[in-house]
Amino acid sequence: MADVLSQGEIDALLSALSTGEMDADELKKEELEKKVKVYDFKRALRFSKDQIRSISRIHENFARLLTTYFSAQLRTFVQISVASVDQLPYEEFIRSIPKMTILNVFEPAPLDGRFLIEVNPNVAYAMLDRLLGGQGVSVNKVDNLTEIETRIMSQLFQRTLDSFQEAWSTVIELEPEMDAVEVNPQFLQMVSPNETVVVISLSTTIAETSGMINICLPHVVLEEVLPKLSVHYWMQEKKKQRQPGELDSIEHRVRQAPLLIQTELGRSEITIHEFLHLGIGDVIELDQSIHEPLNVRVGGHLKYLAQPGKKKNHLAVQVTDVIEEAAEDE
């Protein structure tokens, strides 16, 4: 049990068992029933939690890139964010989207297969209205999509693939190419109905219009890059990305970094009155004896002891001792 019982709760439980108000056998039966988990083989979970988190991070970056792209293209307020990331059968995804919608099908070369970006008609027509000089008002007439409207939307969403490519660049170098723009999901069969797909839902707001953009990624297409979606792989890749001689270059740069070195001849304390009346020829007595070593500070920290002297007619100090870090802390 996750909760810790108090002494009073334990006494009450024992009392209930002894009086017959609670049956111990029924408690054991309930505990066994809790251990049984229902598993639906039609909804096979083929993506691990780690992979789902990685896909979510990738498309959070994609959502930010889309926000920037659509804001520049439509010249109006645009807000796009990841609403959910789920895995489900392809047939269930097709049933969940409107009967008439905007379906952008593209091929993510070098991966073998097709991906899908489904845009809610409210959002798609708000974008189209802005591109044609309107206020961004949505008119849901997707069943009457003209050739001109198809061409404009195809070009608009073709450029979003550049953002998709950039978002996935940390995992694989894709060269996505728009394949088709459809309006009826019933005529679109990318994979088998029972194939597991991961669906990323993007909450989208265009001016006063809001809706969803759904990205459908089939498992069979992503299978090649799934090992790269684990955190362990990313950590290994970061180590591998170091170029030959990179550590030597970093060490060389660190060695060339300038450091401020100061030698203290001594210290003294005077009053403000004495400071205000200092004049030429006055002498300030230091607390440092000429027989004691001088403190040498590096970057403000005491590191060495030294004795004063001259080298080639220049004032200099000679290091006589090294201050250990432990001694400095004391």
UniProtKB/TrEMBL annotation:
Transmembrane segments: none annotated. It is found in: Bacterial flagellum basal body; Cell membrane. GO terms for biological process: bacterial-type flagellum-dependent swarming motility; positive chemotaxis. One of its GO terms (cellular component) is bacterial-type flagellum basal body. Residues 253-323 form the Flagellar motor switch protein FliN-like C-terminal domain. It comes from the Bacteria. Its main location: other. It is a peripheral membrane protein. Keywords: Bacterial flagellum, Cell membrane, Cell projection, Chemotaxis, Cilium, Flagellar rotation, Flagellum, Membrane. GO terms for molecular function: cytoskeletal motor activity. Belongs to the FliM family. This is Flagellar motor switch protein FliM. It comes from Halalkalibacterium halodurans (strain ATCC BAA-125 / DSM 18197 / FERM 7344 / JCM 9153 / C-125). The gene is fliM.
